[in-house]
Amino acid sequence: MRRLLILIMQCRPMERNRITYLLKGYLNNELTDIETDELQQVLLEESNTSMIRESFFDIIEMTGPAGNYRTDQWEMMVDRILVADRAASGNNTFSGRTHRVHFLKTAWFRYAAAIIIFSAGIFFWTLNKKNTQPEPIAINKVIEPGKEGAVLTLSDGTRMVLDSIGNGIVANEGGSAVRIDKGVLQYDGKGSDILYNTMSTPRGRQFQLTLPDGSRVWLNCASSIKYPTIFKGDRIVEVKGEAYFEVVKNTRAPFIVKLPNKASIQVLGTSFNVNSYDDEPALTTTLLEGAIRYKRDAAEAGQAVDLTPGQQIQDQFNSALGVKNIAAGPMEDVVAWKNGLFSISGSNYTTLLRQLARWYDVEIETRGKLPVRSFSVSVSRKIPFPDMLKAMGVYGLKWKMEEGKVIVMP
Questions:
Q1: Are 96 and 156 part of one and the same domain?
Q2: At residue 103, does pLDDT exceed 70?
Q3: Does the predicted model carry a pTM greater than 0.85?
Q4: Phi, psi of 204, deg, nearest 5
């Protein structure tokens, strides 16, 4: 019956006031399951773009004046979000396998969140700061979003910038062919000599890698992975920064990820994300599928913890290991970077600021005590930096450029 109702809704003409009702209901967490499904269909239908934009402004007008943001600016931002996220829905690189969807929200939620985040911010701002205007943002240098790119260091120390190399064989390491195919660095694993390569991404770059056994790696910005050009026995790699793995199952050859904090992750066949940036308060490993064992070296108390899907381990180095269960929403936030999104919820702005600094390759400094205020961001990583600043500005943050740095103030 529920599916029949959804089909009926799709067949009737969608009215602007109905879209406004659905968007506002979603913002206030008041929609029924059927209405939520209806909103999903509305957001995914390109013919509704004009009415979605108009309804978006209806919500802003209901809450009061939108400060000094011009209508044409908001239109451009909404259109950019809709276009980018619809394109992402047609080319989702998360996985071709659908059996993992039960851990993640479906893609439509990101479209709703990307739109609602702006209206939610305006809603809060107009209720709490009616007598103030946000300070203008002075950007005196071009800050571009990150893009695909990496540096490959071969066994002899030769460094190759992968940004500018097209498809084809780029090197031969001990008889193993190294090639780029459709933007992915690949190894055929046919060599006889075990040599070691390192793929690293500077700030503002990310890249994909297929290891000699067929396991896939997505490497986030400011990260690196060291690996052999062929695997013999245990499959061991070393990671710094952040990476997402989809590991080919091989019970005779465990897959082991060594981490900077003298710990390791042992895998049989699974999908997981590891974040080991040295500026994060804890090293986190999040399991989406399969089974892994997180283990500290014997010299580091020798603790070991087995994770099941939907769990995350947090290692703060000087304390006991902590494991928590992750709901579908936060789980999607963990791997959002891999799918081309900034996605984070909570009240800790500094986590988001660190992500922005790495992706836009810009130094961000905070001055004063930032407000403790609940927020939720889910937006394309392709959004220009000035637009991102404006989006965050509605939450009470002020920004300015000073000697090439972005200064964030309460």
A1: no
A2: no
A3: no
A4: 85, 15
